[in-house]
Every structure is written in structure tokens, then in C-alpha cells.
């Protein structure tokens, strides 16, 4: 029975069921918490009754100054491979899980603070966050959600009224994140690295109960858990690739078992199509470049699988390897299938099973043209929908070197010839966004908030991104890529 949904009724299943997976924590006190943004629609979905609270009360609650009824703040323990190197202890160094809200359907959602001060896991860090990083996570997470891509959500951003010290002093803030859970590949690695398979089993059973309840009681449930997680990651990464999202820091501690995109740090949306694109200042080798995301997904899943071997086959973990490998290999097939069907949908193709090889070639040639011409990845696809209705001019204008474009268009048009042109275009526009978080607009919005306490650009951008598929009058600038000079110099930084 889910507890009643009176304002802020909390469950603490993680804290109750996994006593060795966290330490208690307490949000730091802050001088003058001030609400920057609050997601009322999400609060409503979660069954949080906040209608009668003032902005000041919301600011106090979502900066941890006022603890919610029944909430037991904890810092979760996890390990992780960062850029390939293993750290046996990371954990929430600047975040606290307040507890789990239960929605109307009985689903529980983690409500967690980020930037709420140092914890046992801070390793010398200050546990704080800056306004810019907080609003960035707010904006991109919400954009992803409205693009239909699984993501943690933004419930609140609260300014602390204090400064945080990075390369320069910056205004501080606290972010409230909502997630299906914060269980990461790194959470499994924490106890696996300590050879404590009883703890790994406890976590696996908890995870199954929370995310894969259809597996409860099944004999091979841990193997099936791996399969379910792999399927969700295949879907997630295919979604990322289809919109040109680059996560930027796909460490195993940043891969959520729930299949949600988590930890928006140095992420970015690609503009000119370039499979090698990488924006993160800390990713000099391009480990997490656009084109590497699926292989890295498989690499991370392999680390996850390793943690499960001793509980899949208690007597002889090695014996489980072939079964696990079959799932890890199948990840590639799953990913490719999902990517292909997503790309077919973006090309407006009906009858997608008829000639898969022809479609694959069509897509590959299209991407080659985009790359050769450095065409904006979002607009390239979107203007194809206009071409479906007979207006190829806006599309052609995106290609500086037009060689081959006409031939390709003729092939594609032949492929969609039997379909209704207007229906095809409408279907394409339902899966190809017109508005994505354009890097220069994101930076402008964060700068205005940071330097001038001006939230208007942030709020306007957020509103645009909440409806990314429908082109609206007066928003042309939100659909345009950054000036070339901006992109050439654009680097993203970890949101610490
Ligand atoms: P991330 O790269 O943001 O996923 O964070 C990696 C690890 O560093 C996590 O354990 C974080 O909790 C920790 N961390 C990041 N920033 C800070 C900070 N300002 N203070 C303390 N710990 C931090
Ligand atoms: Mg992280």
C-alpha cells in the first residue's frame, strides 16, 4: 500500500532496505535561499501538494533548510570507472537523497538535492554548485524529457545567496533532481570491488523490485536484470544519437540502471554533423565522442555484468561468462536496430521492413552528405520534412557543396513516392525536433542568470524547449545553430 499522498509524504526504501549503501547527511545551512525556478507541472505529476506554499517556503524546502516530513537525507555510496580508470569510492560528494515521493500510480521517485554541501564522500570538494551549472542541468534535463528521451527531471533550482569559488567566485545554487532512482552501475561496483557479493545481491534484488518487478522470484533474475538494463541503455543511447546529444562523461557512475540520462555535466548537442564531435574540456582523448557512445555503453554494461557474475552463478562465476557475453553482444544488435528504425522514422519511411539494406544505404549516404557539408544535424533532418512536401529549397540552402545532394533526394523521393506527402512530412516533424538546446543560447541564458541575476533568457529558452517539435512563429532564432566562431571555440565544463 503506498502511503497517503498528503504534502511530501516520503518513503525511504533505499535507506531502509540497503543499510550499508549510504551515510546519513545533512544539507548545509545557507544564508538566503531564493527560488530561481520551480517545476509545478512535475510537482503535480509526483503528487506533491505545493499549491499552498509560498515561494519562500519552496526555497527553504528545496535548499534543504526545512526538512520534509518523513525525509531522511542520505549520501549514497558508489564507485566508478572514470575515463576508464577505477575509483573504488566516489559517492554523493555534493548531493543528498531526501527520500522517495510516491505518485498516484504507486511509483516511487527519488527526490535529491545537488549542491547541498559536503558529505562523507566529498574528497576535499566543497559539495556546492553554481547557479550556471544548476540551471544547465535544469534546462537540458527538461529538454531531453520533452524530446521524449528518458531523463532525470528538474523540480527546483534555488539560489543560496552565497558564493562558490571556482576559477572565479560564482553565485551558488541548489538543484532538486527527480529520478526513477539514483542506482548507478557504480553502485554495484562499490560492493563488487570489495568482494561483498551478499551486498551486490541485496542491491540487485532491490533494483529488481523497483525497476524490473516482472523478474521477482525468477531463478535467472540477475541475468535477466542485465538483459533489461542493456535493453534500456540500447534505447537510451539510440535516442541520444538520433538527436545529436553528446553526454560527455559516460563514466560508470554516470550510467543509471533505470535507463534515464543522468548527470548533465559537460554535455552538448551537436550542430554541424561530425561523428568525432566532442565538447568536454576534460575529454582530451575523445573517449566520449559522439560516435563512441554506443561502444562505451557496451563497455559500461560489461563492467556492470562483471559485478553480477558472482550472484548469477554462486558456485562458479566463470561459468556465467558465456551467458553474460551473449547479452552484451546482443546490446549491439539492439542498439543498431533501434537506431535504424529511429532513422527510418526521421526519413519518413513507412513500410520499414521491406528493404532494410536499401534503407541502411540511404541513411548512410545521407549522413555522409551531412558530414561532408557540415550541415546542422537538427536542421538537416527537419528541412527534409519540407522537401517531403515539395519544398527542397530550405534544405538545399544548408549544403554549401551541393554535389550528390540532388541524386540522393531523388532516391529518397522514390522511396517515399507511394506515401501521402503531407502525412509523411507531418510524421517526420513529429520525430525531428525543430528546437534543441542550442549551445550558444544555453550559455547566453546561464550567463545572464549568473552575471545579472536575469532569469528571463533562461525561462524563455525553457519554454521553447518544452515543445520541441512544433515550429512556432517568432522563434526562428531558437532554431538556428550558433555562429561558427562560437562553435569553433565551444568547450563544456564539468558542472561542479
Ligand atoms: P561527476 O563527474 O559530476 O559525476 O562527479 C564525480 C564525483 O565527484 C562524484 O562523486 C561527485 O559527488 C563528486 N563531486 C563533484 N563535484 C563535487 C564538489 N563540488 N564537491 C564534492 N564532491 C564533488
Ligand atoms: Mg556523476
Quick description:
It contains 17 helices and 13 strands. A hairpin with a 2-residue loop joins strand 5 and strand 6 (85-87). It is an alpha+beta fold and 496 residues long.
Short key terms for the protein model shown above:
7-stranded antiparallel β-sheet, binds adenosine monophosphate, alpha+beta, 13% strand, binds magnesium ion, disordered N terminus, two-stranded antiparallel sheet
Q: What average pLDDT do the residues reach?
A: 95
> Considering DSSP H and I runs of 4 or more, what fraction of the residues is helical?
40-55%
Q: Globular, elongated, flat, extended or rod-shaped: what is the shape?
A: globular
Number of helices: 17
Domain count: the total is: 3
Largest sheet: 7 strands, antiparallel
Straight-line distance between termini: 39 Å
- Unreliable stretches: 1-5
Label the structural class: alpha+beta
Bound molecules: adenosine monophosphate, magnesium ion
Task: Specify Rg, calculated over alpha carbons.
Answer: 23 Å
Give the H and E element order: EHEEHHEEEEEEHEEHHHEEHHHHHHHHHH
Secondary structure blueprint with pairings:
Blueprint: E1 10-11, H1 13-17, E2 22-24, E3 34-38, H2 40-45, H3 55-61, E4 74-76, E5 80-82, E6 85-87, E7 95-102, E8 108-114, E9 129-130, H4 131-146, E10 153-165, E11 169-179, H5 185-192, H6 197-211, H7 221-243, E12 245-246, E13 268-269, H8 293-312, H9 321-346, H10 356-372, H11 377-388, H12 393-396, H13 405-416, H14 421-431, H15 439-452, H16 456-465, H17 484-489
Antiparallel strand pairs: 1-7, 2-4, 3-10, 5-6, 7-8, 8-11, 9-11, 10-11, 12-13
Magnesium ion binds at residues 253-254, 263.
